[in-house]
Amino acid sequence: MFKPSITLLSAAVCVALAGCAGTTNKTAEPVKLVQDKQYDNVLLQEFSGPYQGVPQFDKMKLSDLEAALEIGMADNLKEIEAIANNPAEPNFDNTIVALERTGAALDRVFTYYGLWSSNISSPEFREIQSRVVPKFSEFSSKITQNQKLFERVKTVYESAEYKKLTAEEQRITWMRYNSFARNGATLTGDDAKRYADINLELSKLHTKFANNVLADEENYVVYLSEAQLSGLPESFVASAAAAAKARGKSGMYAITNSRSSMDPFLTYSTERELREKVWNNYYNRGNNGGEFDNKAIISEILKLRHERVNLLGYENYAQWRLEDRMAKKPENAMALMKKVWPAAIARVEEEVADMQAIADKEGAKITIKPWDYRFYAEKVRQAKYQLDSNEVKAYLQLDNLREAMFYVAGRLFNFEFTEITDGSVPVFHPDVRVWEVTDKTSGENIGLWYLDPFARKGKRSGAWALSYRSHTTFDGKTNVLSSNNSNFVKAPEGEVTLISWSDAETYFHEFGHALHALSSNVKYPSSNSGVRDYTEFQSQLLERWLATDEVINRYLVHYKTGKPMPKALIEKIKKSATFNQGFATTEYLGSAIMDMLFHTTDPDKIGDPVAFEKSQLDALGMPSEVVMRHRTTHFGHVFSGEGYSAGYYGYLWAEVLTSDAAEAFADSPGGFYDKDVAQRLVDYLFSVRNAMDPAEAYRKFRGRDAKVEALMRDRGFPVEK
Predict the structure, then answer these.
(1) What is the phi-psi region of residue 402: left when phi exceeds 0, alpha when psi lies from -120 to 50, beta otherwise?
(2) Which residue ranges does the record assign to the Oligopeptidase A N-terminal domain (predicted)?
(3) 257 and 345 fall within a common domain
């Protein structure tokens, strides 16, 4: 389910956006179920049509959004008040389960809000967003600071009944209590008011940060003439022409300010000055001065976050953030990162030496700069492994890769995907397609999978997964509505879309999130929430199936000849698996370490965030040829909301689990399709979602905790003996 990127709404979501209804008691009339209410506004209405109901994307109107949000929040607060003021003694059913039923109408509105925010944004939407986000914060505070509600939850959590609950019931009770206690419910008087005021201000700043980045992505486009296309692959040129035409620049070629356009341009273009320009456009987003500059916003966000957690008694924001995550303490997260960091930057030094040698041999008379890294890394790849990324790309057809993902899902999860082409399921853009997901054995409907693969104006960069509805059984079984969203550059009409190996891994990665949602077997809505340094694990793990022989032999065929990828090319890919890991690991760790430093340092000592970024990375020995994957001024994971703030390290934490789990498959008799290991994968790593402590779930799968040495082996780094 989409959750707006605003301060603490994620905490309130646990209370406010789960299901729908009120509760009953012995001394009062039954509370009217809000789910029985008939709404005129389509954004609030129950999903209708087939497959247990689907979002009415064909009927949604932006003009309905603001009113729908206000009505949804008001009705949700009525439900909350009914639970908080129930005169019956608090118990699991009339408090915790009742909360699981609240907010269904608002939940539906957020489905549409999430699409306008991420997939089909516009200046008109952003105006509405700037008005409603502060209201979200006020709404959140009314729930987290509802003392009567908190006392009821606390009573259940501390009751004798709690010990008799099932493991899942105990966990959702703990999560509710914990979300209240950690998010201001224990504060009173002036402290409680200040806490709410900080949340309100942060909500505005997060939205402004995100919109500034999007503005820089839309405003900085490099248009090329035919004479400036040297080195670029044919498929990329065709896509760039289509992108320019869509922007009213027919006859030119557009390099948009997105990773999916920037990355291949820097890899193949022989125009060094243009590479530098494209690089600067991308990595300076949010740092260009003027109305869209993010530096002052970052400073204010850090100060407010620090002040807020001080009110709760924490020394710094990271300490508060990690308390209920797998890492537990900032020191543990930093220790993992610093264990990998020396090997990563040492590998960068080797990579740069290899690249400089080629540049010198060619008589380029340059010193390798960040905008040269991808270009010369590609030359090194070809020299060392005789592996041409463009040659590989010819076998990576977007549609075939989708079918490959379906194949993997069938082998591991017993899922079958059948496209819905009769128009019975509305979509929000012509590019979106929908598949029904069923169990291959029983034919039972599991849910729907929506795919929105292509970049366009108004769609934020990157790739992500959304769930429009999650699996539950506590009030009857619900199916899953899951969505994957990417920014691949669309090929011209009638041509196939080809993507890089890295993009193919990302495609599988996001599908892993979808499978995590589709395989859910939990009872309550809250169990579908995630622990941030664990939720990336399942998706990272699914990337490993791209390189399996079964996928390569069946689906990686040449887009022109239809012939399978040659075994010699496959061997080159596998031999080069650890190639450029210095760059990949260092650019990621630079971002993750800076995230932690920003949130463990007194904001008054930080000053200019860009200057702080430079001084800290210099102290760490960050190679000058590499920059953070997400530089501070466009680090949306951290500053457009709080989903990954002080938590970007979680990708590495999850990667340790991924590498260790991958070895469990590799060492099994059936390899990556071993039935026994696959069953444990589904039972303990996917279907349980957050109904079980992640550390316990992993031990059930593996028989022990994960070992960091598996990660070092995966990346070709030295392993201490």
Answers:
(1) alpha
(2) 75-191
(3) no
The pLDDT of residue 462 is 87
Last residue of a domain, one of 590, 615, 648: 648
Asked if residue 334 belongs to a domain, the reply is yes
Strand partners, 447: 437, 480
- 95 pLDDT band, cuts 50/70/90, is very high
Most confident stretch, 35-39, 352-356, 489-493: 352-356
Alpha helices by DSSP H, listed for 284-329, are 295-311, 317-322
Instruction: Using alpha carbons, select from 280, 371, 348, 372 the residue that is nearest to residue 633.
Output: 280
Q: What is the pLDDT of residue 610?
A: 98
How far is it, in rounded angstroms, from Cα 147 to Cα 166? 27
CA distances from 107 to 114, 187, 515, 688 (A): 10, 28, 21, 22
Phi-psi region of 325 (alpha: psi -120 to 50; beta: other; left: phi over 0): beta
Q: Quote the CA–CA distance of 361 and 355 in Å, as a whole number.
A: 10
Structure-token match 């190679």, residue found: 623
| One domain, residues 414 and 354 | no
Question: Are 419 and 437 in a shared domain?
Answer: yes
CATH code for the domain in which residue 290 is found: 1.10.1370.10
Q: What does the pLDDT read at residue 14? A: 33
Residue 236: which domain range?
Answer: 220-280
Question: In this structure, are 21 and 147 located in the same domain?
Answer: yes
Which runs of consecutive H residues, i.e. helices, occur in 247-329?
259-268, 272-283, 295-311, 317-322
Structural domain contains residue 598: yes
H/E stretch holding 614 reads helix 609-620
Residue 148 resides in a domain: yes
Helix (H, G, I), strand (E, B), or coil: what is residue 488?
strand
Report the number of distinct structural domains present in the chain.
4
Burial class (CB in 10 A: 0-12, 13-18, 19+), 70: middle
pLDDT at 331 over 70: yes
Q: What is the DSSP string of 653-700?
A: HHHHHHHHHHHHHHTSTTGGG-HHHHHHIIIIIITTTTSS-HHHHHHH
Cα distances (angstroms) measured from residue 652 to each of 321, 464, 590: 17, 18, 12
Cα 183 to Cα 125: distance, rounded to the nearest angstrom: 29
Please state, for a pLDDT cut of 90, what percent of the chain lies above it: 90
Query: Longest Cα pair distance anywhere in the chain, in angstroms?
Result: 88
**Domain harbouring 454, CATH code:** 3.40.390.10
pLDDT attached to residue 721: 66
User: Is the per-residue pLDDT at 11 higher than 80?
Assistant: no
Residue corresponding to tokens 């210095």? 582
Distance CA 572, CA 144 (A): 55
**505 and 417 within one domain:** yes
> Per-residue pLDDT tens for 466-522?
999 999 999 999 999 999 999 998 999 999 999 999 999 999 999 999 999 999 999
- CA–CA separation, 471 and 517 (whole Å): 8
Q: What is the DSSP letter of 69?
A: H
Residue 31 has pLDDT above 60, yes or no: no
- Clarify whether residues 128 and 158 are in a common domain: yes
pLDDT in tens, 249-259: 999 999 999 99
pLDDT of residue 461: 84
Q: Confirm whether 700 is domain-assigned.
A: no
Question: How many Å apart are CA 490 and CA 242, to the nearest integer?
Answer: 8
Q: Are 404 and 491 in the same domain?
A: yes
**Phi and psi angles of residue 521, each rounded to the nearest 5 degrees, phi first:** -135, 40
Q: How confident is the model at residue 10 (pLDDT cuts 50, 70, 90)?
A: very low
346 and 419 belong to one structural domain: no
